[in-house]
Design goal:
Elements: H1 2-37, E1 41-43, E2 46-48, H2 54-61, H3 63-97, H4 100-110, H5 118-129, H6 134-141, H7 156-166, H8 168-180, H9 184-192, H10 197-225, H11 229-233, H12 242-252, H13 256-288
Antiparallel strand pairs: 1-2
Helix pairs in contact: 1-13, 2-13, 3-7, 3-8, 3-10, 5-7, 8-10, 9-10, 10-13, 12-13
Length: 289
């Protein structure tokens, strides 16, 4: 029996070895390279292989880096909040209101934005929000305003709107999956016991949908904090986030050690925030149960 188990284990290891090595090469190698560079010294147009923690000291003590990092966290949190709040009603409607034979069509329509490039969608929002864009032209044509509005582009609001639209399908789909797994008899039992629809939603539907909400939060929060294109185009380069600062250090200033330290620090902060959120959500679910 032991020999049979060992043979099965060896076959299992042989089966997972190729994808494991591929993942190690594609994911771990770049991360280890960035981590190594973050402890090296920047020279003139070259990287001096002298080990030093000075890059991290500069990252944590530089007020500009601190400001940009806090702005990135704030924008990402705001985008996540807006996206999830708008995605939940859509997912709820598709799951509970739409007839079963129509759900596939709705999901198909929700995923249509994936057909176009992310960069094209960002440019479209720049056209919509621009000085002579769709919104300003419409308001001017209707006589509502005399001059085009200048505060709807190149600011945090425009960045939040663009990112919320870009990541809406990523939030809708996991929430929809969580809602689909809810046993409808539990909702009927709550109403039979005299609970209103609002209280049934608050005490039954929402807690059971929290795994999907949590997945949506993490799926939106993690990539938006490192978004580079939207702050550059929609923000006009006036509202840089941490990814823009990393790009400046890596390419414009050719300071790869400091850029690597910024990247590692950003990843560590995102991981810490995600872990804290997971722990809070776990306590919330235990309290609800």
């Amino acid at each position: 029996m032991a020999k049979a188990l060992d043979a099965q284990a060896r076959r299992g290891y042989a089966l997972i070895a190729p994808p494991f090595l591929y993942a190690l090469l594609i994911l771990a190698a770049p991360l280890l390279t960035i981590l190594t560079y973050s402890f090296l010294t920047d020279g003139y147009l070259e990287v001096v292989r002298d080990f030093t923690p000075a890059n991290y000291v500069q990252v944590w003590t530089d007020p500009i880096v601190r400001t940009v990092m806090l702005r990135s966290l704030m924008v990402s949190a705001l985008v996540t909040l807006v996206t999830v709040l708008l995605a939940f009603p859509v997912a709820y409607y598709v799951s509970f209101i739409v007839r079963p034979e129509k759900k596939a069509l709705w999901l198909f329509l929700i995923t249509i934005p994936f057909w176009t490039s992310y960069l094209i969608r960002v440019f479209l929002w720049k056209v919509i929000l621009g000085y002579n864009g769709v919104i300003n032209s419409s308001l001017t044509g209707l006589g509502i305003i005399d001059e085009p509005l200048t505060f709807i582009l190149y600011n945090v609001n425009s960045i939040v709107i663009t990112l919320a639209h870009a990541y809406a399908p990523f939030a809708i789909l996991p929430i929809f999956v969580a809602l689909e797994k809810i046993d409808r008899s539990l909702l009927e039992a709550g109403r039979d016991l005299g609970e209103s629809r609002a209280m049934t939603f608050w005490r039954v539907t929402l807690p059971l949908a929290m795994p999907g909400v949590l997945a949506a939060v993490l799926i939106v929060f993690i990539p938006t904090i490192g978004d580079y294109v939207t702050p550059e185009l929609i923000g006009g380069g006036k509202i840089p986030m941490i990814a823009n600062l990393i790009q400046v250090q890596m390419l414009a200033l050719d300071n790869r050690p400091l850029g690597s330290a910024l990247a590692v620090t950003a990843m560590a902060i995102v991981a810490l925030v995600s872990i804290v959120f997971l722990l809070i959500n776990r306590r919330f679910l235990k309290a609800r149960s």
